[in-house]
């Protein structure tokens, strides 16, 4: 039976925990990620962010903390969970798509902040390679590509986790023109020439 990203899945991994903030998707932890990503994007763009594309958005958990920081930004999410899209799609601007669909899908102009969090390490290599070029094309500022590798101590959902070395992802991101900024953040290809050498990882 294939893995189901249904209500029970999100309840287990993103809401149920002895302490709410200890959950993988706990509010405090998520808020710190969002603040880091927004601050980094705005540092490099030298202005407030206006647009966010969230690929593999799940229930759209990033939307609320993003709008808390920047109430006027445009948020657009895509996910392969039929449950998440049916329940939250209209309210949170979420749409159905698998990662591999981005081989051809270009739903918007390049965004200030592109989010692809906790997605890539569950994908087969073929699907990952099909969709990855879109991330570089759709990112006009900074990408938060939260991805875990074989070298990491994995805490959470290990079903379907691909135990690849960090070099596997690093090489692919760099081949698309992304520059490493550290802390899961990557600079869009078109901004690389404007940064100091020691700002890059």
TrEMBL record:
Keyword list, A-Z: Methyltransferase, Transferase
GO MF annotations, alphabetized: methyltransferase activity
Domain of life: Bacteria
UniProt GO BP: methylation
A Pfam match: Methyltransf_12
Domain Methyltransferase type: residue ranges: 53-138
Gene3D superfamilies: Vaccinia Virus protein VP39
Protein name per its UniProtKB record: Class I SAM-dependent methyltransferase
Taxonomic source organism: Montanilutibacter psychrotolerans
